[in-house]
């Protein structure tokens, strides 16, 4: 059994990229490279630097801290790399065992309010009924949540198995996360293993 990551910088047959921005990476973890029937974990990430190499480094670091750690934790099962929540736990996701990576992000003023909000509010739990409607696999689903905002600009995104889920994004946008005058963003990743 082999596990590896595929990176998509352009259009791919199995996972088309949804951005031509050189700072955007689409990543897919193959849990068993020898068995195409085994689900994969798909996510996308973005670096903010103008320099392409630095942007790629930022993007990959954010992906490691949020998505990759959930997959490694699913394999390791020690609670060392990411947090575990059972269905009925505070912070849990109804009907599923949730493995949650850290919240990471960036802000123009250096504040970490949006990242702290993800960690404290655990919005995946609140949004579970909306997100659940978009789950398309019986036992392994990846959910990436992102809040980006500054002044009048807001971009909230929820991706389920790499695809945008607009009802969940709208529900995330409606929650009471910290709004700021200067731009900042935060993201986290929830791996749903189940049913719990």
Give a short summary of the structure.
With 196 residues, the protein is of the alpha+beta class. The protein has helices at residues 52-76, 113-121, 123-126, 128-132, 166-173, and strands spanning 4-8, 24-30, 40-46, 83-85, 97-100, 104-107, 140-150, 153-160, 163-164, 184-193.
Please give a structural write-up.
The strands form two sheets. Strands 4, 5, 6, 7, 8, 9 and 10 form a seven-stranded antiparallel sheet that branches. A three-stranded antiparallel sheet has the order 1-2-3, covered by helices on one side. The protein is an alpha+beta fold and 196 residues long. It is 26% helix and 31% strand. It has one domain (4-193).
Indicate the structural class.
alpha+beta
Low-confidence stretches: 7-17
Give me the count of strands. Answer: 10
Distance separating the two termini: 25 Å
Estimate the strand proportion. Answer: 25-35%
Radius of gyration: 16 Å
Key traits:
three-stranded antiparallel sheet, seven-stranded antiparallel sheet, 196 residues
Topology diagram in text:
Layout: E1 4-8, E2 24-30, E3 40-46, H1 52-76, E4 83-85, E5 97-100, E6 104-107, H2 113-121, H3 123-126, H4 128-132, E7 140-150, E8 153-160, E9 163-164, H5 166-173, E10 184-193
Antiparallel strand pairs: 1-2, 2-3, 4-5, 5-10, 6-10, 7-8, 7-10, 8-9
């Amino acid at each position: 059994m082999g596990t590896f990551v595929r990176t998509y910088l352009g259009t791919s047959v199995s996972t088309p990229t949804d951005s031509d921005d050189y700072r955007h990476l689409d990543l897919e973890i193959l849990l068993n490279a020898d068995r195409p029937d085994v689900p994969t974990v798909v996510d996308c990430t973005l670096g903010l630097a103008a320099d392409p190499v630095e942007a790629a480094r930022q993007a990959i670091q954010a992906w490691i801290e949020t998505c990759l750690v959930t997959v490694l934790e699913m394999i390791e099962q020690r609670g060392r790399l990411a947090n575990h929540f059972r269905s009925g736990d505070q912070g849990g996701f109804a009907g599923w065992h949730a493995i949650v990576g850290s919240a990471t992000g960036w802000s123009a003023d250096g504040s970490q309010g949006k990242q702290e909000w993800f960690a404290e509010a655990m919005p995946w739990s609140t949004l579970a009924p909306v997100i659940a409607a978009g789950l398309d696999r019986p036992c392994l689903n990846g959910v990436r949540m992102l809040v980006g905002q500054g002044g009048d600009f807001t971009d909230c995104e929820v991706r389920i198995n790499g695809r945008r889920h607009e009802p969940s994004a709208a529900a995330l946008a409606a929650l009471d996360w910290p709004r700021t005058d200067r731009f900042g963003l935060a993201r986290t990743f929830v791996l749903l293993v189940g049913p719990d």
